[in-house]
Each structure stands twice: as structure tokens, then as C-alpha cells.
């Protein structure tokens, strides 16, 4: 009797996979027209530009506010294209609601837990109990290359010795910064009270994942590590949303903002069998 009941359940689930979820998929995500596709495409390009590593070459520091702006742009585009909203199991919606499950995925290996994050500079771990100035001193116009990684992975590979051309580019960068009154005013306001010089951090984890961040030398490294980690993970989230949308759009020819039929069926089976 038990076997018959289980067999009947399997049949029902297969019917759900083949009919009910297809109807739900059509209900939630009809293929957008060409105009809506362009909305998604343009928004993806703009969001990627905000967190692009090209910002390093341009000397633009990435802040958490900028990351949130990129996420808000993507969220707005999804609301325009799918005004009825996405189902609760949709990966895109789960990303926006911070409910994404990256366990067992390559993307999950890139995410760093705030409490387990480590910053390294010049083959030394920047201890959270100290200040940034304890390591870099109080010199003005300081720029350092900082590596971020998960605790327990050991010291990251050291950066190659800076070349004369790179040194020239570095001096050019500082010259441009001096010529920007807005930045000069910001530095004066930030350092006037405490007398701490600003430090420009070039944060890296591989060649593709890198960005600039500025902080006073007096910053506690506990606070700085959390700040860097949040920007790092936020950039990853934007990249996942952009890559997922672009990749699925190319594969399905619809918009990319949907889950595959097999994943829907698997989630349905999990939900029903857990009842």
C-alpha cells in the first residue's frame, strides 16, 4: 500500500513538472519584447560599469553606496520587465532578497564571510586589533595593494616588484588627484580633525576582482576589513546577477531572468517531499 502511494506521488510530481510549472512560468515570465530586452541589456551594462575593474584604471574608488546603486538599477529593470514579480524560487529574486543558496557552487567559493575575512599587505596580515596607520605609517599620498581572502588559506602570492612605468603611472595618478579640488576638499575634511593621512587601497583577489577604496590611516582595521569585505561581496552579487541574466538570455533567447524547467521541478519535488 505504501509503495502504491509513493508511486502515485511520483506520477503527480511528474505531471506538476510538465504542466503546472510550465503554466506558472508563462504566468510569471512571458518573453519580453525587444524593447524590454534592451532595458535589461542597457541596465546590465550600466551596472557592470559601476563595479568594473576599469574603475581602477580611472582612479575611481568604489563604495558600498555605488554597489547598492548598481543593485537598485538591476532591481528596477526587473520590476519594469516583470511587473507581476518573480516567483519566490527564482534565483534572481533570491539574490535581491539575500536568500541565494550558493552552497556547492563555484560562485559560493568566491564569497568571503565578514568574520573570516583577512586583509594582507606586503606579505603581512593586517590584524583587526590594530589601525591602518600602524602598518602604513602617517605619510600622505599612500597607496597600497591589499589582498583579501578567507581565513585559513595562508598568505596570498606577493605582488611583483613595481616597474619604472608603473611608478610613473602612480605618480601621474597622484598628480591628477591633487588637481581635483573636490577630492582635495574631501581629504582636508577627513584629515583635518584627526591629522590622519588618507590611504588609497587597491584591493585585489585575482586579476579580475579588484577595486579601489579610500580610508583614513586612523581607521580601525576591524572596521576596514568589514567595509572591504562588504564591497567585495557586493561586487560579486552584481556580477552574478549580470552574468546570470546575460548567460541565460543567450541560451534561451528570452531575457535570462528565469530558472530552467529542471530546476523548477527539482524544487517542487523537494518542497512536496518535505511536507
Structure description:
It is a single chain. The radius of gyration is 24 Å and the shape is globular. A five-stranded mixed beta sheet has the order 2-1-3-4-5. With 275 residues, it is an alpha+beta fold. It starts with a helix and ends with a helix. Helix 2 (34-51) runs antiparallel to helix 10 and helix 4 (64-81) packs parallel to helix 10 (221-252). Helix content is 56%, strand content 11%. The model is unreliable at 17-23, 182-195 and 247-275 (pLDDT under 50). Residues 245-275 are annotated as: Disordered. InterPro entries: CFAP298. Residues 264-275 have a biased composition (Basic and acidic residues). One of its GO terms (biological process) is regulation of cilium movement. Belongs to the CFAP298 family.
Given the C-alpha coordinates, what overall shape results? globular
In whole angstroms, the N-to-C terminal distance is 19 Å
User: Approximately how much helix is present in the residues?
Assistant: 55-70%
Q: What is the average of the pLDDT values?
A: 75
Question: H/E element string?
Answer: HHHHHHEEHEHHEEHH
What radius of gyration results from the CA coordinates?
A: 24 Å
Structural class: alpha+beta
Number of helices: 11
Strand order of the largest sheet: 2-1-3-4-5
Low-confidence region ranges: 17-23, 182-195, 247-275
Proportion of beta-strand residues: 5-15%
Main β sheet profile:
5 strands, mixed
